[in-house]
Design goal:
This protein is of the alpha/beta class. It contains 14 helices and 24 strands. It has helices spanning 22-31, 48-60, 87-90, 100-107, 126-134, 166-176, 192-203, 234-246, 262-271, 309-317, 337-342, 372-384, 395-398, 404-410; strands at 3-8, 13-17, 39-42, 62-66, 73-77, 84-85, 109-113, 137-142, 145-150, 158-160, 182-186, 207-211, 214-218, 226-229, 250-254, 274-278, 281-285, 296-297, 323-326, 347-350, 353-356, 366-368, 387-392, 415-418. The protein has a four-stranded mixed beta sheet with strand order 22-23-1-24. A four-stranded mixed beta sheet has the order 2-15-17-16, with helices on one face. The chain has a four-stranded mixed beta sheet with strand order 4-5-3-14.
Length: 419
């Protein structure tokens, strides 16, 4: 099992290009199941979760041709696609549940394993299932599988989500594209990745409109052949922005619309970062003294993303005083705390709130990743710790960060992979 050896402290300087968004690519790839005609998806990130999704589509009968750099996929579906998504493929990634909507919408049946992924909370599929049920899907759960079917085409309906859910919003939008009549989804998630999905579907002829958190979909009979370039990964960009702020570094972040991470950039300015924006470039310089901030809270977009909570906590460890951060999205997303404490961090967790003492001198240690975002937080912490740190289970990191050690090496981080 691969590990990273990091020699700290490091100061980062240079340029970094942001890869395509994992969280936008997965629903877009799932939505390709709706098509009879070829689809070309560009700017896919080379990460483990994308490989999982492509393998899942292949197992269902999609013919996939990848470009030499593996960032462009041409997808052609068979007339008779399979509708069975096995546990062996679905267990490693919760996003796999997103094939349920298109399979039911297009083929009127599906047998899909209940999904796996990071152990950061319940993330139940109930919202997905109840929304699809309102569109006409019948289902039962047996032996860890969702057995679903519909009596012909799904039918448009008004659906209000009881809680904002990214995955349930995506699954419902995809399914409603080929449903009869009009579907109105209320209390939707409005993350940029969801807007990217709807932009892709509209380019292929779908009829989807947004008004705040309300999404209206007028069903059509079929989608047309299209090619689409996936948006940049705002979480990767946010992570590198935190890294520059943390290490008193100076970084140019390329290939990203800065508006997508406006909330995060404004927050980093409060920590003391100096930030300039020019077209699709962010220039960020870390402060000599990181300011402390109390009462940060993760929220749905356009709030502070839960996917940056762990990285921000590392920043707080090195700030000038006491800080706090509340996790309001997932109930089990503080698993990195114990590992940060091994480096010397002083963090006290009370329910879903972490109180962090600043001015901490971190010392290198052996660390263990528990989930995708926690693992990158440990890498950041090791970058500013004195001495050598070893971060284990880096396969978590590879689920969502493309070529991370190469990108970090190029900007001055003393990191190498141990086999």
């Amino acid at each position: 099992m691969d590990k990273f050896l990091i020699n700290g402290p490091c100061k980062i300087k240079g340029k970094v290009s942001i890869s395509g968004s994992k969280n936008a690519s997965i629903p877009i790839l799932a939505a390709t199941l709706l098509f009879n005609k070829p689809v070309i998806i560009k700017n896919l990130p080379k990460v483990r979760d994308i490989n999982t999704m492509l393998n899942l589509l292949k197992s269902l009968g999609s013919k996939i041709t990848l470009s030499r750099d593996r960032k462009t996929a041409k997808i052609i579906n068979k007339k008779n696609m399979k509708t069975f998504a096995s546990y062996s493929l679905v267990k490693t990634m919760r996003g796999s549940i997103l094939v349920l909507g298109p399979l039911i919408s297009k083929f009127y049946k599906s047998k899909i394993s209940l999904p796996g992924g990071c152990l950061i909370g319940a993330r139940p599929v109930d919202y997905h299932l109840s929304a699809l049920k309102k569109l006409g899907m019948e289902y039962k759960i047996r032996d860890g599988y969702i057995l679903a079917k519909s009596n012909g085409r799904l039918k448009g309906e008004i659906i209000k989500f009881p809680k904002i859910s990214v995955g349930a919003t995506e699954n419902s939008i995809i399914a409603a594209c080929l449903a009869k009549g009009k579907t109105i989804l209320k209390n939707c998630a409005v993350e940029p990745e969801i807007k990217d999905l709807t932009q892709f579907l509209n380019k292929a002829g779908a009829n989807i409109r947004w008004s705040g958190r309300i999404c209206t979909i007028i069903g059509i009979n079929s989608l047309t052949s299209t090619n689409y370039t996936v948006m940049a990964d705002r979480i990767e960009a946010g992570t590198f922005c935190v890294a520059a702020t943390l290490t008193k570094g100076s970084l140019q972040i390329k290939n990203l619309d800065p508006k997508m991470i406006n909330t995060e950039l404004e927050l980093l300015k409060k920590f003391g970062a100096k930030i300039k924006i020019n077209n699709n470039n962010i220039f960020i310089k870390g402060p000599d003294k990181i300011k402390s901030i109390k009462n940060i809270k993760t929220k749905e977009f356009p709030g502070i993303p839960t996917d940056l909570q762990a990285q921000l906590m590392v920043l707080m460890c090195k700030s000038s005083g006491k800080s706090s951060i509340t996790e309001s999205i997932f109930e089990n997303r503080f698993m990195h705390v114990a590992e940060l404490q091994r480096l010397g961090a002083k963090i006290n967790v009370i329910n879903n709130k972490a109180i962090i003492e600043g001015n901490t001198k971190l010392k290198g240690a052996e660390l263990m990743s528990s989930d995708l975002r926690a693992s990158v937080a440990l890498v950041l912490a090791a970058m500013v710790a004195n001495g050598k740190s070893i971060v284990g289970r880096v396969y978590h990191l590879e689920r969502g960060y493309e070529n991370i050690e190469n990108k970090l090496q190029k900007i001055g981080v003393k990191i190498k992979r141990l086999k």
